[in-house]
Amino acid sequence: MDIDQIFSITNTLAFFSWIPLIISPFNNRIRNILLISTVTLLSLTYALLFFKTFDAGAMESFSTLDGLMSLFSSKEAVLIGWIHYLTFDLLAGIFIARNAEKHQLNLWITRSIFVFTLMTGPLGFLLFVVYKTVATKKYTFE
What does pTM read for this prediction? Predict the structure, then answer.
């Protein structure tokens, strides 16, 4: 399988995994299935690509922005980074869903926050933190 096919498959898998989460965010079974299936498959794909292309000498490149940019000069490296985003954005969505259910937060506001989390993970997470803090009058995480 070539790198473009892997990109297409992982992108499609991640996108379609958001649909049941958005439709039924307070369904624990759906969240667990997503963790067991999509998050695990994306993580496995990430690990296989990472170890296939890993260069121990590149570790030094993480210490500067220019070095980091050089790491992302290949399609494989960009795909590894993209799968990282897809995986952690979905994990953030699952975390948001669990917390929103636990604190009985508004379903529709939670769903709208998912759009930001899907497209811009950290921004979606930040919106949830602000919303949850205002709604519960507490800044806590479980």
Answer: 0.91
